[in-house]
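Assess this:
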Amino acid sequence: MDEWPQSWAGDDEDEPIGRHLTAVMRPFMRHLQREKLSPRRLRHHLDNLWLIGGETIRRLNDEPALRTKPPTELLMDAVASGEAPLVHDLTEAEQAALDATGRKLRRFLLAHS
């Protein structure tokens, strides 16, 4: 997760926001680890979190006014509908899996806010 902010960044101001997003995501990943999910399932959720974070940063570049929101709120906005952001070029099954991670993240953030 340490490299994610740099991989998401379209410009210099994206990286600090990305670091804040990963700081919010880390407790969620620790929570999933405590659920004793298989390594494959954990990797699957980790990959999906990377996509959610990347789409969140992309959205900031499309809507600069969002940059003032706290990272937890940005992530809640990303999964507010109970689904993850729609990611271009994903198959229907991949998007459904991404949505499942988004729902888990949403429940976690609601329970820990």
